[in-house]
Amino acid sequence: MVAPAVAYERRGAAALLTIDRPERRNAIDGATATALHDAFERFEGDEGARALVLTGAGGVAFCAGADLKAVESFAPRLGAEEGPLGFTRLTPSKPTIAAISGYCLAGGLELALWCDLRIATDGSLLGFPERRFGVPLIDGGTQRLPRIVGLGRALDLILTGRLVDSGEALAMGLLTEVVPEGAHLARALELAEGLARYPQRTMLADRRAAIEGLGLPLAEGLALEARSGPETFGDAARGAARFAAGEGRKGAGAGV
To answer: Which of 1, 38, 130, 166 has the CB geometry, 3.0–4.6 Å to 106, for a possible disulfide?
Structure first.
């Protein structure tokens, strides 16, 4: 019996999604892409899962991108509304975190860019080496990378195909945090639990406004942000009362 290439499990408040093809550096073929889409739909429907942690099995690679030895298996997925690699053209309704160890390349980097936060081990390598072979970025890389690191740095990686290590990736804002070898998954799950403890309605409203407002004229973005005010006023009032009663003074408890 062939083991599933994608594993979905609950770890506390997090849904842990693992690409499990370590023999192929967790490269994705057509069947794996379909399984990723199914797992995304499961996460969206899982009310108890307040964040998604995406990782790769084995520790050597987060994901090496599309499996170029099985490129023909992607033919039916090229026009898929959800994206060739499973869900890269969909926007999740809840926070997502990439837990990266080792190689994060090509479509694998596009999957990491899809996530809100990216935690990587020291020594990880990230980039678009498929530039050498004429394989295009069609899973969001050309759109998300400039939004994260700025156009100049994004064009450097997109045009040259060079790889950056975790230190350079952190310095340019591509990574959220760098952790020691083997600590990426624990840290990502810790972050997920921390996010789950916050009042959800206001956090998700702020997240949605940031994502949907990017690229809008300022006035339109501010109007988008303002719409959440009446919806979240009750939550804000309760939080203000807690602060007034002495909770969280001098930044106590801030951060995850």
So the answer is: 130
Interval 4-22: pLDDT, tens: 699 999 999 999 999 999 9
Mean pLDDT of 220-241: 83
Active site residue 212: no
Give the pLDDT score at 188: 98
CA-CA distance, 41 to 98, in Å (whole number)?
17
**Entry pTM:** 0.91
Q: Is 181 a catalytic residue?
A: no
Q: At what angle do helices 141-149 and 107-114 cross, to 10 degrees?
A: 60
Q: Which residue in 44, 47, 82, 130 is the catalytic one?
A: 130
Looking at 81, 110, 220, 225, which residue is catalytic?
Answer: 110
pLDDT of 254 strictly over 70: no
Fill in the DSSP letter of residue 28: B
In this structure, what DSSP letter does residue 24 have? G
Q: What angle is formed at CA 111 by the lines to CA 26 and CA 200, rounded to 5 degrees? A: 120
